[in-house]
Amino acid sequence: MALGGAMKHRTFFWFFLPTALAMTLFIALPIVSVVLQSFYAPHEQVIIEVENCGPFGCTTETTIDREATEALREAQPLGRYVGFELYLNRGHLATSEIAEAWNTTESIGEFASAVYNLPFYRALTFTLTYTFVCTPLLIILGFVIAVAVNNLSTWLKGPVIFFSLLPMIVTPLVGSLVLFWMVDSRGVLGTFLQYLASDPNLSLKASTPLTWIMLMVYGVWSSAPFAFVVFYAGLQTLPQDTLESAMIDGATRWQRIRYVVIPHIMPLVTFVALIQLMDNFRVFEPVVGFKAEAHATTLSWIIFNDLGGETRLLSSAATTSVLTIIGIAILLSPVLVRTWRDFNAKS
Amino acid sequence: MDAATRHRSPALRTFSALFIIVWLIVAAFPFLWTLWGSFKVELDFFSKADWTNALTGPLTIVQTGNPFTGAGYDGAWIQEEFWRAVLNSFLVCFFVVCTSLTIGTLGGYALSRSGFRYVIWLLIIALIFRALPQMTLVSGYLLPFFEWNLWGILPTSIIVLVAINQPFTLWMLHSFFEKIPKDLDEAAMVDGCSRFQAFRHVIVPVMWPGVITTGLFSFLLAYNDFAVNAMLLSSENQTMIPAVVSFLGTTQEAGNVMFAVAAVVSATAPLFVLVLFFQRQIVSGLTAGAVKG
Fold it and tell me: What distance in Å separates residue A196's CA from the closest CA in chain B?
């Protein structure tokens, strides 16, 4: 019976309606809109031929018919249907460029650098490198901080946690700007690095590898607090009796970490890893904050770049968006499987 | 843990303490440095000659007669009207948090009280939505919003942020409501309350800890957002973070990056206060999803 049992379908519907409406209108439908838009390219301008006849004969001129162009854009705001053309063009998957590079280049290295010069693959390379370098590093750093904070006296823990949270809580753009100003060649960290390298002209902004490292340091710095907090909470629920009996059995400190602490923390490591893979894959603000676009671009940044500026390249942005969503879907599949398994285990 | 702590070797304890000190410097020093530097002139904050100039401010003294100057703040807040962006940001945050919590509470409660199969599907869909890069959604909004003249105004940005916020809000509140015993509202329903009355009179009074925690994260999302507000708001309706970025564009020509530095410090200050007061809630919110999984 409904009384005392699960919520009736009807009641559920009304409770859930507002949030479902919000998500349908502003998440689900935009995805549909993006997918649709990715198959349409902007209208070409309507060209008309005008014949000018004067005393010395007639000449034909081609001009742009602005009115007709406007009317066409008005009538079909999506543009003209082009199928998969946008997906395959140079700005996206660049199939013909890749085929050509494959046929003309001599070595794998040469081929790789030809592919890297294509905007989509350049962004994909950095996005994936960033995701898979930052995620393990921030987990390790977070874990070490959690263990160290756990060893502190109780009265110190609060203030230490407060300062540890700051890199994560501040706006990503603000965090990256703050670091960017410090590593500027006239900033305090920049000067320090110049001193370390004994090179007064060292500039992080001017070098691709250094820019990549700088962005990844930012990535670890800003996300390690999240890993730290999760692991720290996990350490509070360590099975004390197991630890103590391990000590009585003469287990060394390292053995206790290896056989008691790490197995206990492992599910949390998976959780942090999955969340961070998703979040790092959509990295965007640091590229803006560090003005890094000359050396490192990300998928989200390409979309932003297409959408901004004078000419809003909606179709190109839509195509990159669809490709990004496919990337997220691949990364997300383990999370979905896990959630599904958890829920089935519970019910 | 105390038993284990007592048996720790001094070397290890020293190493652990040193590590914490280094980490605290790494975590907090950039903010303190920027806060201090925001009261200097640009040639001290970015000093070619000597990095200690940013601490002592010799050129600041030369230019203003005082080692500290509020010129950056004056320029940002008054000359460039940063206060408008601050006001817009707080309007956006206020309405996003209120709307998001209202509809999220109803939805999260429903998810926790319905044992049917579709709950897991709705939660999985929410998880997929949560994972989508916001930039991909923004590229879907632009054309329809232009067509329907919705582009550029605060309500559009608010409703979009509410929607983007929903997946996370639903997950948090769903797991929170699961912890409130079902007997509570069911007893009320046996006494003749409708489901909504039971929710209103029995659940609402006890739900505030979870709602406040969730609200904090909604606030952070709205406050920290750059992608949505930068693309969907016209320049006169701009919020704080896009405004900071636009300073970087305009002030580069004016030769005064200090407006941006002052704006960055101004935008960070409320977050400091937030963490100061709600540290416990933030920590518990971050771990809520993890510990149950």
Answer: 14
pLDDT of A2 higher than 60: no
Q: Within the 117-136 window of chain B, which residues sit less than 8 Å (CB to CB) from chain A?
A: 120, 122-136
Please check the confidence at residue B290 and state whether its pLDDT lies above 90. Answer: no
**CB atoms B24 and A160 under 8 Å:** yes
pLDDT for the residue B293 = 36
Helix, strand, or coil (residue B152): strand
Taking Cα atoms as reference points, which of B36, B23, B19, B54 lies closest to residue A191?
B54
- Mean pLDDT, range B96-117, rounded to an integer: 93
Tens digits of residue pLDDT in A178-195: 999 999 888 888 888 888
Q: Taking every pair of C-alpha atoms in chain B, what is the biggest distance, in angstroms?
A: 79
How many angstroms from the chain centroid is the CA of residue A310? 25
Segments of chain A assigned E as strands: 40-41, 47-54, 57-64, 80-81
Six-digit token string for A48: 């008309």
Q: What is the DSSP letter of A117?
A: T
- B245: chain A residues, CB-CB within 8 Å: 173, 288
Question: Number of C-alpha atoms within 13 angstroms, CB side, residue B16?
Answer: 18
**Does residue B119 surpass a pLDDT of 50?**
yes
3-state secondary structure of A65: coil
Side-chain half-sphere of A93: how many Cα atoms within 13 Å? 14
With contact defined as beta carbons under 8 Å apart, do A204 and A197 qualify? no
Tell me the CA end-to-end span of chain B in Å, nearest whole number.
23
Q: What share of chain A is helix, strand, coil (3-state, %, to 5)?
A: 70, 5, 25
Q: Which of A173, A228, A276 to mutate to test the interface with B (most CBs of B within 10 A)?
A: A173
Separation in Å, CA of B65 to nearest CA in chain A? 23
**Do residues A37 and A315 make contact, with C-beta atoms less than 8 angstroms apart?**
yes
Chain B, 150 to 169: residues with Cβ < 8 Å from chain A are 159-160, 162-164, 166-167, 169
Q: Which two tokens stand for residue A266?
A: 């492992």
Nearest to A82 by CA among A137, A51, A135, A41: A41
Q: How do A47-54 and A57-64 pair as beta strands?
A: antiparallel
Q: What was the ipTM of the complex prediction?
A: 0.90
pLDDT at B255: 55
Q: Are B140 and A34 within 8 A, CB to CB?
A: yes
Which residues of chain A from 87 to 116 reach within 8 Å of chain B, CB to CB?
none
Q: What is the pLDDT of residue A44?
A: 81
Quick check: B5 pLDDT over 60? no
Per-residue pLDDT at B254? 55
Residue B292 predicted with pLDDT over 50: no
Residue of chain B with shortest Cα separation from A79? B143
DSSP character at residue A221: H
Task: Compute the residue count for chain A.
Answer: 347
Q: Which tens digit of pLDDT belongs to each residue from A293-345?
A: 899 999 999 999 999 877 788 899 999 999 999 999 998 888 788 778 877 77
Strand ranges, E, within A16-124: 40-41, 47-54, 57-64, 80-81
